[in-house]
Structure to design on (707 residues):
């Protein structure tokens, strides 16, 4: 199998409401930016993968509906819907399709027009209608329950979580695409509205409108397009069981799917010491609390050490292993695109194109996706 | 234990707000306020695109750059008569006709209701014109139906 | 769309857009009939007829899961209805939250009443957790390790809501 690389990246402006564009035009904005970055036209694209969570817009068959925007006219188009991981799954699928040898250049697009529905209600409608829908409160409720578990196991405080949110928002100030640009303090987070104990408003990600597109290309084709390619080194995915109550079974304080997916991705990439070898991580953290549990699952520290890493600045822009220079999901969350933004931002770091949020000399970057009842995608990129 | 299986009868109910965007909003406000039907011209292939779009779906290159006002007249390209009843989703009482109408000067057809017509006399190629609703609210039913000329 | 109610609202666009931008508002309201299936039906029948909470014991690893299901989530062994057993209606709160914000309940299309407490409850002897409502909705009065018991509805219809909520057992459990 030859190498596969990312040669074009396009993001829209992410905002709470993009009323200037319908969903087709929103998709198109990202597609156009990705094609321009790769200096390609739609004629150069062999296949298209589009990802979105249909119930946020109530457009069943969204890959058909958005075809004028995606450029899929008379091309093979595939739609992917895997919850929060949608955006990272389209990246994995782009890699799979090019790796198969069937296509040389695949355009992947993740998008969401979240302002068109009530996000929490729409997420609640994902859960099992008989068993869990009536108790489900979107993503906030279950993430808050996980947070309370983490607090109990590790004695973590609300200040520990608040510090994570402050770092994410601080990083987002360097990212012109980010939805929220908030210059806030730990006290601001602690004093923000209590959404769902212990989750406060500023602990939680926003709901954003926007899209992200990338062009994946096979080795030769990629090198013809540009000499600045973000090469895929490894990918791994793990899904968990559906019932929320099963999640707490045997993995206690860790996100089991992320723990196992990163382990596999490191092995495939030949990474022995991820903390030393990785230069930057773009991790899907839907809330400050989640970031603590998720960091504990990356094999870069002992269980319960995540709060200390944040407090000591190890994961800050100037730290040993910067986490989410983009501002992460805490600053921007267009659900079907969110995972794609993680991959795109990691690729920008590899390509040295991240402007004010660039980490110096990035050779190896990791992106993760999170969704559903605790699913994880991992993609490791190299220069 | 009995062999009775349990079923939960419920519903999925959610409010949505669909955004028309700049191009769509212009089309619908002109329709609502001035009874005008507007399309967009592609600068590359010169086709007049209806419904209007920001980019030509075929050329996919440069932005459509010109609004074109249509006469509201056109020809029936194909049609069917709806005779079944499906409560809640039908815009008018059945039986009624729905057709693809090729508006003069455009490429592609608009799917709409054919009204004020003897249903047995509708045929392909028949000339029709738009009849606007008296109460217009900025949606596609501001055109009430198309009727034979 | 079944039951679609259509309305149009408009707002003046901000910033660079001088023209009016339109939004179409629509209530999508579609009826569904969801099947609980063989194992779910056992759970709901026992709940309705006998106020019993049923789980399933894996015939390979011996772990007990609620609700009963066809596959053991740990060892993926196929289970049968003969593996269903009654489990305790008392347990311990392992994780909890109090939802304190408005959102649309997809079951009704309307804002769900709040605040309300929910928790991941480890029923005694059961390996996994059951996610359900807590009677208590003041988060300062809930803690992990707290002991709770199921309160059943007097009129039961064979649905999860037949367990009204879990109430605190005073004087038991960790503080
Ligand atoms: Zn054209
Ligand atoms: Zn088992």
């Amino acid at each position: 199998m030859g190498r596969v690389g990312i040669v074009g990246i396009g993001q829209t402006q992410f905002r709470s409401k993009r009323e200037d564009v319908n969903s087709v035009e929103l998709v198109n904005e990202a597609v156009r930016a990705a094609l321009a970055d790769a200096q390609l036209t739609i004629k150069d694209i062999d296949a298209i993968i589009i990802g979105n969570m249909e119930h946020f817009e109530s457009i069943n068959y969204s890959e058909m509906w958005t075809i004028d925007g995606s450029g899929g006219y008379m091309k093979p188009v595939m739609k992917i819907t895997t919850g929060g991981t949608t955006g990272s799954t389209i990246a994995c699928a782009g890699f799979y399709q090019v790796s198969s040898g069937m296509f040389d250049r695949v355009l992947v697009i993740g998008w969401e027009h979240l302002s068109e529905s009530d996000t929490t209600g729409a997420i609640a409608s994902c859960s099992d209608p008989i068993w869990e829908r009536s108790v489900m409160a979107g993503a906030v409720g279950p993430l808050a329950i996980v947070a309370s578990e983490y607090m109990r196991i590790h004695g973590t405080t609300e200040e520990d979580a608040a510090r994570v949110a402050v770092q994410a928002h601080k990083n987002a100030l360097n990212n012109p695409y980010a939805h929220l640009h908030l210059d806030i303090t730990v006290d601001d987070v602690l004093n923000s509205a209590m959404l769902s104990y212990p989750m406060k408003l500023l602990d939680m990600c926003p709901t954003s409108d926007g899209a992200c597109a990338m062009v994946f290309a096979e080795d030769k084709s990629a090198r013809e397009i540009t000499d600045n390619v973000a090469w895929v080194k490894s990918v791994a995915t793990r899904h968990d069981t559906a019932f929320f109550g099963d999640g707490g079974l045997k993995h206690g304080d860790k996100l089991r799917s992320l723990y196992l997916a990163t382990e596999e991705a490191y092995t495939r990439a030949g990474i022995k010491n991820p903390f030393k070898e990785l230069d930057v991580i773009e991790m899907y953290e839907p809330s400050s609390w989640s970031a603590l549990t998720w960091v504990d699952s990356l094999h870069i520290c002992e269980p319960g050490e995540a709060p200390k890493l944040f407090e000591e600045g190890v994961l800050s822009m100037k730290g040993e292993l910067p986490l989410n220079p983009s501002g992460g999901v805490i600053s921007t969350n267009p659900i079907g695109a969110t995972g794609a933004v993680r991959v795109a931002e990691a690729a920008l770091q590899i390509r040295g194109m991240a402007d004010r949020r660039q980490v110096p000399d990035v050779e190896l970057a990791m992106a993760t996706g999170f969704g559903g009842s605790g699913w994880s995608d991992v993609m490791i990129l190299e220069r | 234990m009995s062999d009775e299986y349990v079923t939960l009868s419920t519903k999925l109910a959610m409010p949505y707000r669909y955004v028309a965007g700049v191009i769509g909003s212009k089309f619908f406000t002109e329709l609502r306020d001035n009874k005008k039907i507007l399309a967009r011209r592609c600068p590359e292939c010169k086709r007049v695109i209806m419904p209007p779009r920001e980019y030509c779906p075929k050329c996919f290159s440069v932005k459509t750059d010109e609004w074109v006002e249509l006469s509201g007249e056109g020809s029936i390209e194909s049609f069917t008569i709806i005779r079944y009843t499906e409560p809640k989703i039908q815009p008018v009482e059945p039986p009624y006709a729905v057709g693809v109408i090729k508006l003069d000067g455009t490429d592609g057809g608009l799917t709409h209701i054919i009204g004020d017509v003897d249903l047995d006399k509708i045929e392909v190629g028949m000339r029709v014109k738009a009849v606007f609703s008296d109460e217009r609210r900025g949606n596609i039913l501001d055109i009430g139906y198309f009727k034979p000329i | 769309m079944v039951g679609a109610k259509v309305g149009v609202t408009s707002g003046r666009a901000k910033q660079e857009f001088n023209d009016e931008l339109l939004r179409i508002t629509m209530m999508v309201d579609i009826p569904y009939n969801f099947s609980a299936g063989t194992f779910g039906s056992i759970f709901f029948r026992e709940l309705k007829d006998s106020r019993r909470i049923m789980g399933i014991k894996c015939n390979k690893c011996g772990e007990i899961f609620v609700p009963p299901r066809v596959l053991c989530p740990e060892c993926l062994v196929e289970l049968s209805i003969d593996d269903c057993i009654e489990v305790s209606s008392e347990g311990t709160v392992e994780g909890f939250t109090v939802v304190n914000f408005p959102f649309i309940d997809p079951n009704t299309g309307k804002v769900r009443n709040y605040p309300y407490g929910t928790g991941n409850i480890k029923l005694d002897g059961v390996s996994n957790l059951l996610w359900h409502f807590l009677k208590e909705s003041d988060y300062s009065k809930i803690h992990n390790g707290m002991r709770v018991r199921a309160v059943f509805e007097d009129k039961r219809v064979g649905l999860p809501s037949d367990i009204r909520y879990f109430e605190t057992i005073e004087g038991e459990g960790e503080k």
About this structure: The pocket of zinc ion (ligand 2) is lined by residues C 58, 60-61, 63, 72, 74-75, 77 (CB under 6 Å). The longest strand of chain A covers residues 209-218. Chain A touches chain C through 45 residues (CB under 8 Å).
